[in-house]
Design goal:
By secondary structure, the protein is an alpha+beta fold. It has one domain. The chain has 4 helices and 2 strands; from the N terminus they run H-H-H-E-E-H. Strands 1-2 form a two-stranded antiparallel sheet. A hairpin with a 2-residue loop joins strand 1 and strand 2. Helix 2 packs across helix 4. It is globular, with a radius of gyration of 11 Å.
Length: 75
């Protein structure tokens, strides 16, 4: 599922955290909310960055998309 489809389905708290902490490692509770609305996160998704011991990260393009939405711009 594309980010444009699942973003509005996230809880407001999750959207706020992602906007306020854009580019940071995404904590498990936030990842769980994304999975709840979008299904399993695919490494093939354009917004997928990496996942390592410190957590999940959005790609640069994903970070840019979230920043645009957070600034009420058209991503």
């Amino acid at each position: 599922m594309e980010i444009e489809e699942w973003w509005p389905k996230l809880s407001p708290t999750t959207r706020e955290w992602l906007a306020d902490n854009n580019g940071d490692a995404v904590p498990p509770a936030i990842v769980d909310d994304i999975i709840r609305v979008a299904g399993p996160i695919s490494a093939d998704a354009w917004w997928f960055g990496e996942s390592d011991a410190s957590g999940f990260f959005f790609s640069d393009a994903g970070v840019d998309w979230i920043e645009s939405v957070a600034n009420d711009e058209n991503p």
